[in-house]
Write a structure and sequence with these properties.
The complex is a heterodimer of chains A (about 170) and B (about 500).
Chain A (H helix, E strand, L loop, with lengths): L4 E6 L9 H12 L6 E6 L4 H7 L4 E8 L9 E4 L8 H4 L6 H10 L7 E8 L12 H4 L2 H16 L15
Parallel strand pairs in A: 1-2, 1-3, 3-5
Antiparallel strand pairs in A: 4-5
Chain B lengths: L1 E5 L10 E6 L5 E7 L6 H5 L7 H4 L8 H15 L6 H33 L10 H8 L1 H22 L8 E2 L2 E2 L5 H30 L2 H8 L8 E6 L11 E5 L5 E5 L4 H4 E5 L6 E5 L16 E2 L2 H7 L6 H15 L14 H20 L19 E8 L2 E9 L5 E7 L1 H4 L1 H15 L8 H12 L18 E7 L5 E7 L2
Parallel strand pairs in B: 6-11
Antiparallel strand pairs in B: 1-2, 1-15, 2-3, 4-5, 6-7, 7-8, 9-10, 12-13, 13-14, 15-16
Helix pairs in contact in B: 4-5, 4-6, 4-7, 4-12, 5-6, 6-7, 7-12, 10-12, 11-12, 14-15
Classes of the chains: A alpha/beta (about 170), B alpha+beta (about 500).
């Protein structure tokens, strides 16, 4: 039985700041308490691979990296449901974009999520093979974890993570 | 002179560009193609045990992880001077063919197909897999998804993981295949062959039956007389996992045939001052610029090139399609006359799809894959090794040097698409020549046509520039070369 809530972290753990997603996934998987409702997955996939992971879920938070060039690296972007986010692994996959994947899934009779939000970090370097993120992006990890907590609280109605204080505001 | 910059900011890195230089007469004088490429590979590899690289290099590219896994494992075999057991080789070849079956399927239906199935002039919103399904039916979509899942299942069984295989190690494989798993792969192989037949039918009905499409494929606008490169087996048939690299000339004659370890005798990489991308060319012919012909060392390494260098396909249905392909496009079913139409690459990919599916089935039936003898542990070290496979997007080379403990001291890669940097540049120039003149207003249609010129190559620049038909963010900036003044800016998706 698939868990209804999915935190899907995208990226590449050896590509400098693109390791943001897998880093978040690693932390969440060590602090998650409510395993009945929420699943955290790191997946270096896009396109068709997204279809497999989204199928059967109710609500999904995608965590990814982005380069808009308009804000300093480390800035968090939150794209609520309905926004066609231009984050790295969602718009220019080798196969198809997120909206196309969702529509294809629906046409094929898959159970696509009713609700998908995207949390993306503005990155500085995603073309250098390196196991370390830049300092600015590393500094965004804790705020991102807080945002994940807030999202989960809003969606599930209860505190599902331990080891951190419950957030008081929603960004 | 004016400079036009087409900026394909795929993934929004913002530094991939096409520079078009227009002289005062309004004619295209030159063209440079710049794309993002991953940096720091050699440094990243240095100091690591060579056996780790087969697992790490799968992360270089989310599209061709299996190709990097295999090329890296072969290079590591060579570093340790070990010949892998026959069963291990068969397992590697089998899983690699299954990977191809899935990858070529994805490209034909999701990336290349929309240009033809939906048409090059179809609205941008329709030029994707949804448009393909709308035209050929929802059932086709279900078949595509099922085919992709088949390939992944075989990779999971043999490669140990669905997306990034881990079982090819120096000396062979780390996981054997059970009788039950073999039976499952045989069934998958049978279904794959049926799917490949269906795809050929789609190609016939939707693309080849349309006279205008066939004329477009054969038009001079998309043709280049370059050298061709690809792996061949002992019979000069197309092979993906192992063989000799064969290079043929624009007139179809053999230029070279060599083993992986000798690649530096034949291939040289040129550096241009405006780009950190390298431009490989044939050393013995020499670099003469971005030009066609027997005297130019430019070569391409694509499905089209692989068919050009081969004398045929090793499986019956694929060979029949190979003959039909050459007869239709050159009038010579023997394949001795090369196909030079870039857009025919899509059809060549379908021929290879059929081969990959048939080979998967054929190799799955070989009981040797159940053998327990799948690993020959290395006992010595050579300290240098080269591994070459055919990635779906071109000949992929991994070259490592290590110390006596197998710790990497130097690493060099020539990835599939890098081989094609020069011909891609030439294709863009050819397309742009016909589309952009003095005073031309850059429209979305013009951007689409330029995109098509390099889409056939299925370019894969360091996992960074994958784009969808009509969805690649493009920016063209026209400015005076003398003053730098911006004259016109045309943007799409950015």
């Amino acid at each position: 039985m698939l868990k209804p809530f999915l935190i899907l972290c995208l990226g590449n753990e050896v590509l400098s700041d693109d390791a943001f997603g897998p880093t978040i996934a690693g932390i969440l998987n060590t602090t998650q308490r409510d395993c009945e409702q929420v699943e955290v997955i790191f997946a270096p996939v896009a396109g068709f691979g997204l279809l497999d992971l989204l199928n059967g879920r109710d609500k999904v938070l995608l965590i990814d990296s982005i380069v808009t060039g308009g804000v300093p690296p480390g800035t968090l972007h939150f794209f609520p449901m309905g926004t066609l986010t231009p984050s790295r692994n969602l718009t220019t996959s080798h196969q198809m974009s997120l909206p196309t994947a969702l529509e294809l899934g629906r046409q094929l009779g898959y159970q696509m999520p009713e609700h998908i939000d995207v949390l993306a970090v503005e990155v500085a370097d995603v073309t250098t093979l390196n196991e370390s993120m830049t300092g600015q992006v590393s500094a965004a990890i804790e705020p991102a974890l807080e945002s994940v907590d807030q999202w989960l609280d809003l969606q599930t109605g209860k505190d599902v993570y331990v080891n951190r204080e419950a957030p008081t505001t929603v960004k | 002179m004016k400079s036009i910059v087409i900026d394909p900011i795929t993934r929004l890195e913002g530094h991939g560009k096409i520079h078009l230089f227009i002289n005062d007469d309004g004619e295209l004088a030159n063209c440079y193609f710049q794309v993002p490429e991953l940096r720091g590979f050699e440094k990243f590899c240095q100091g690591r045990p060579v056996e780790e690289l087969a697992r790490i290099t799968t992360r270089i590219c989310g599209v061709c992880p299996d190709a990097h896994h295999m090329a890296s494992a072969k290079a590591a075999d060579a570093v340790y001077g070990v010949t892998i057991p026959s069963a291990a080789r068969k397992l590697r070849e089998l899983v690699y063919n299954a990977f191809y079956a899935g990858d070529h399927t994805t490209h034909f239906y999701a990336l290349g197909g929309p240009d033809f199935v939906c048409g090059p002039d179809a609205p941008k919103a329709e030029r994707n897999i949804l448009g393909v399904i709308a035209k050929v039916g929802l059932d086709a979509g279900k078949k595509v998804i099922a085919q992709r899942a088949r390939g992944q299942r075989v990779i999971e069984i043999i490669g140990g993981k669905k997306v990034h295989p881990v079982t090819a190690i120096p000396g062979g494989m780390s996981k054997r295949v059970t009788k039950e798993e073999q039976q499952e792969i045989i069934k998958i192989g049978e279904e794959m062959v049926e799917f490949a037949k269906f795809t050929i039918q789609v190609l016939n009905d939707v693309v080849l039956a349309n006279k205008a499409y066939l004329e477009m494929i054969l038009s001079d606008s998309y043709a280049h007389q370059t050298y061709n490169m690809g792996l061949v087996d002992a019979n000069n048939h197309v092979t993906f996992y192992d063989g000799k690299v064969r290079v043929t000339a624009p007139d179809g004659t053999e230029h070279a045939k060599y083993e992986a370890k000798d690649y530096l005798q034949y291939v040289e990489e040129r550096v241009e001052p405006y780009s950190y991308l390298k431009y490989p060319y044939l050393k013995k012919v020499g670099w003469k610029g971005f030009v066609d012909g027997m005297d130019s060392g430019v070569y391409k390494a694509t499905p089209l090139a692989r068919l050009n260098v081969a004398d045929g396909m090793a499986t019956p249905l694929a060979h029949a399609e190979y003959e039909r392909y050459f007869e239709t496009l050159t009038g010579d079913r023997s394949g001795k006359t090369p196909v030079n139409s870039t857009l025919a690459t899509h059809w060549a990919r379908v021929v290879e799809l059929m081969f990959a599916c048939e080979a998967t089935l054929e190799q799955a039936k070989d009981d040797e894959i159940n053998s327990d003898h799948i690993l020959e542990p290395p006992t010595g070290i050579v300290g240098e090794g080269v591994g070459i496979v055919e990635a779906p997007r071109g000949t992929l080379t991994h070259h490592y040097k290590t110390d006596q403990n197998g710790i990497v001291t130097e690493a060099n890669l020539i990835v599939g698409t890098t081989n094609n940097n020069a011909p891609i540049t030439m294709s863009i120039k050819r397309a742009a020549e016909g589309l952009i003149k003095k005073g031309t207003t850059i429209t979305d249609g013009i951007l689409n046509r330029i995109e098509m010129a390099f889409r056939a190559y299925d370019p894969c620049f360091g996992c960074a520039t994958h784009s969808l038909p009509g969805e690649m963010p493009l920016e063209i900036i026209i400015h005076s070369a003398e003053s730098g003044e911006v004259i016109e800016v045309a943007k799409r998706q950015c």
